[in-house]
Amino acid sequence: MVEAFYELLKNFNFLLIGAWETLKLTSFSVGIGLILGTFIGMGRLSRYRIINYPCTAYVEFLRGTPLLVQISIIYFGLPQVGIQLAPYPAAVTALGLNSGAYIAEIVRAGIQSIPRGQYEAARSLGLTHWQSMRYIILPQAFRNILPALGNEFITLTKDSSLASVIGVSELMRSGQFVISRTFQTFSIYFGIAFIYFIMTLVISRIVRYAERRLSVG
Amino acid sequence: MNQQATNSAASQEILRIENLHKRFGNLEVLKGVNLSVRRAETIVIIGPSGGGKSTLLRCINRLEEYQGGKIFLDGVDIQQIDVNKLRTRVGMVFQQFNLFPHMNVLQNLILAPIKVKNMSKEQAIEKAHLLLQRVGLLDKIYAFPEQLSGGQKQRVAIARALMMDPEVMLFDEPTSALDPELVGEVLDVMKNLAESGMTMLVVTHEMGFARDAADRIVFISNGVVEEEGPPEQILKQPQKQRTKEFLRRILE
């Protein structure tokens, strides 16, 4: 038992490097998801079917299929049709597309939470649809959905562990590597869980802080 | 007004509404509204709720599209005018103020002139100062909407609409959401605006304002203009039965 935790301590730095990779992977993916989700979320509210149908289909498909399958399609499946991605870009793509779907739903709800009068007032001043969205609706919507976005970030931090199956050396994969050398399954997996827990805890605190700052201004 | 009366009257017409029809699904709200508005005229629109007053205003700046009839602004069919350009020429003030809560008063005022009219920031700020002074709220220039009373919010909303130099101002029940003691300050601003020569269409239940500030009262009921005329005539000697009933109910 002592030896087990000794191995954990000895390899802790190595795990922290994996954690740093997890954080980067997640941040990139959420960044992509945020851009994608903002447009798709707006698209779902479009009164034009040619815009809102594809957006709805996108959200439904990505929410209705397992992330592990999505990662597999992109990393193992696409090469067969000539698109070969390295593990890291493949993981970012899969996680980004996936979080894009969830964030689209969050953004949609956020936009709908802003009273219609705000949009009408903006348009009545001569602002275009896009200007009204950019300057009036989205800034207010994002303030409202910050907690939900924080949740999505936390979910994705945990889900990014699935990238280990395609060989991205993030936290989970680093842990498995340590285990393959030390055979200390209990302490190392426990250590991994502990690090994930600390990361998500810190993220949720940061979000809560940001929330408070924003609600004052 | 005596010399060339017809001619000058025609050239003074800024807004003309012809046989306007508007439906929401199966519900016909406007059933052929006709109205002509002269430059600098203040028109107060009264009538029972659901009668189409607000809808009429919202058709004029195309917040609502209509199915039949025509609206002319300065002789041009508004369907021929770019909608965003039209809205800079026809300002609107809403019952719920609709100030942008994430911006302070100054930002509320200068956003549209800068983005829509390409006004320089310095110029917009200068104009904002003038207009805030005019509505008596220069000291609130950096306040956020939530720090203002309802009356102050509505005065800011009026200033915000005026930033675009509109030719016509639409007021959609501007005092209906206010506590009674705050109604006066908003009406005062509106009276000043009317006296300064602004063309105004005001939907309101404030009969005092109608009596004092209106050049003409238009009574709309069931989607048509039932009766129109100068305040003395409409308020004291209404001709139509519906007008009489409405006034009796509202003045009780």
TrEMBL record, chain B:
Where's it mainly located?
A: membrane
Cell membrane as a keyword of this entry, yes or no, is yes
What subcellular compartments does it reside in? Cell membrane
Q: Which InterPro entries match?
A: AAA+_ATPase (IPR003593), ABC_ATPase_HisP-typ (IPR030679), ABC_transporter-like_ATP-bd (IPR003439), ABC_transporter-like_CS (IPR017871), MetN_ABC_transporter-like (IPR050086), P-loop_NTPase (IPR027417)
Query: Per the database record, which ranges form the ABC transporter domain?
Result: 15-247
User: Domain of life here?
Assistant: Bacteria
Statement: the UniProt record of this protein carries the keyword Transit peptide: no
What kind of membrane protein is this, topologically?
Peripheral membrane protein
* Alphabetical list of SMART domains matching this protein: AAA
* Entry GO CC: plasma membrane
Provide any one GO MF term from the record: ABC-type amino acid transporter activity
UniProt KW keywords: Amino-acid transport, ATP-binding, Cell membrane, Membrane, Nucleotide-binding, Transport
**Name of the protein in question:** Amino acid ABC transporter ATP-binding protein
Q: Which organism is it from?
A: Fervidobacterium thailandense
